[in-house]
Design a protein that fits this description.
With about 160 residues, the protein is mainly β. Helices cover about 5% and strands about 45% of the residues. The protein has a domain of about 110 residues. The strands form three sheets. Strands 4-5-6-7 form a four-stranded antiparallel β-sheet. The protein has a four-stranded antiparallel β-sheet with strand order 8-9-10-11, with no helix packed on it. The longest helix is centred in the first third of the chain and has 5 residues.
């Protein structure tokens, strides 16, 4: 995510490997300041943009802060109209979220605060903790596997 040099509006910049040139990828139609606060990820072969925002709950004795996630998935690369928005509500106070992978069409596995796995139901807008029996909750360090034709051996 970068700012356009001519009007300083935020945009998504990509590098086209075939043409060896930079190009702009049309972001979803949303307020520009939201794009600046967003992060990008590749999930199951799709470009995703996501950001968290606070919701204040004044229905309790003390105002409570809840984190909500807006997730945008570009279903057809390069086509602005193909962005689909999902919202996941009431995640509680948190520091960070990172999408890891999709389970089918409607479930997204995310890493919460760098140590917990959660599964978000994108249709329902809800989430639940993922428990791996035998592994303490705060001891999970997941990573994504990315196929590559580059040899893992380094030649100097």
């Amino acid at each position: 995510i970068a700012c356009n040099a001519s009007d300083y509006k935020p945009t998504i910049v990509a590098f086209d490997l075939a043409k060896e040139t930079f190009c702009e990828v049309p972001p979803p139609s949303l307020a520009g300041d939201m794009l600046v606060c967003s992060r990008l990820a590749a999930v199951s072969g799709y470009l995703c943009m996501y950001h968290t925002h606070d919701i204040y709950d004044y229905q309790v004795d003390r105002p409570a802060v809840k984190e909500n996630i807006d997730l945008w998935v570009m279903k057809e690369y390069g086509i602005r109209e193909s962005w689909i928005r999902f919202a996941v509500n009431s995640l509680g106070a948190s520091l960070d979220f990172s999408p890891l992978c999709m389970l089918g069409q409607d479930q997204l596995v995310m890493l919460k605060d760098y140590e917990e796995l959660i599964m978000c139901d994108l249709k329902e807008g809800t989430f639940k903790d993922i428990v791996v029996h035998g592994i303490p909750k705060k001891r999970i360090l997941p990573t994504n596997f990315v196929e590559s034709l580059v040899s893992p051996r380094w030649h100097l």
